[in-house]
Write a structure and sequence with these properties.
Length: about 325
């Protein structure tokens, strides 16, 4: 049962309120990203902006290349400093349009060292140049490699998967494809799903959010979905919007979301369906947290990251 007090504005701490105001102001100051060429926005994100400062790249990272559906597929690998307990397949955010595998190294270093997991982030193909199902096919290929020859090559047994925003969407879709196309429903022991975009037809919280860009807004999410679903793709297909899929037989999941996230309904709906399918897991809701709020250092972020650490470690 959800604690309704979590949605009371009075429960939002001052640090979170101040951070959210700073993010909105920073996005307003840098203008509309859709007025710029996609290549320029991608490069700005890599360099970092006031609205989204760049995360430091890890000196420990290495590139492992496997065979993908469209040619060589790079995986960015960060290994733990200590004993290896398992592997974490990470799928990055960015609306299927932006982002890359090297933009969240600090998260992967933390998981590597806290949990003893070899962390691999998929450099999947981006839309609109490569619309559905390109990104999903790349993630599927990475998961199949990890569940097959990758286990021996990396010396791991326990496999986990996860991502943020559209990365969480692709993580769920990958689990469904492993179950339905390859007979591997239990290849991964659990999923770390942060603020996922699970209904590309748009849930009420997305439709009603409006223009304020607290990281993302309604137009952003509409445009992301349009880029991913180029042409006449039915957005209610379970292979496009996993909220409509049969979720039985999937592993436990940790769902993380803030109450100030346009994708709040996506997490609430998906986590309820996940539980109804008997998959197990936990839903963590954080008062005032913006979209993928763990991106911004704060007490709230540390609280969420500690729970993610414990969840993944328990799966090893």
């Amino acid at each position: 049962m959800i604690d309704h007090a979590l949605f009371d504005p009075a429960t939002i701490d001052p640090e979170t309120k101040a951070l959210n105001a700073e993010i909105v102001a920073a996005h307003a100051a840098q203008g509309d990203p859709w007025s710029l060429p996609i290549a320029e926005v991608r490069e700005r994100r890599r360099r970092g902006t006031k609205a989204s400062p760049a995360m430091p790249r890890s000196a420990r990272a290495e590139i492992l290349t496997i065979d993908g559906p469209a040619g060589p597929l790079p995986l960015r690998v960060i290994r733990p400093k200590g004993k290896v307990r398992g592997a974490y397949l990470h799928i990055h955010r960015g609306g299927w349009v932006w982002g890359s595998a090297d933009e969240q190294d600090p998260w992967l270093e933390r998981i590597a060292d806290s949990c003893g997991f070899v962390c691999l982030s998929v450099e999947y193909r981006l839309a609109p140049e490569h619309p559905y199902p390109a990104a999903l096919e790349d993630c599927e290929a990475a998961a199949l490699w990890l569940a097959g020859p990758g286990k021996a090559e990396l010396g791991v047994r326990a496999l986990t998967i996860g991502g943020e925003s559209v990365g969480a969407h692709l993580a769920v879709m990958t689990l469904l494809r492993l179950r339905d196309h390859h007979g591997l429903p239990h290849a991964f022991r659990g999923a770390n799903l942060n603020a996922g975009f699970y209904d590309l037809g748009l849930t009420p919280s997305v439709r009603n959010w409006g223009e304020e860009r607290l990281v993302i807004n309604t137009r952003d999410l509409q445009t992301f979905a349009e880029g991913f679903c180029a042409g006449d793709v039915d957005r209610r297909l379970p292979d496009v919007s996993p909220i409509y899929a049969d979720l039985k037989g999937l592993p436990p999941a940790l769902f993380t979301v803030g109450t100030a996230d346009p994708l709040l309904d996506d997490t609430l709906y998906m986590s309820a369906r996940w539980a109804a399918a008997g998959n197990g897991g936990h839903t963590a809701i954080y008062p005032g947290g913006c979209h993928v709020f763990i991106r911004y250092p704060s007490k709230l972020s540390e609280q969420a990251l500690e729970l993610i650490d414990r969840f993944l470690l328990a799966l090893s």
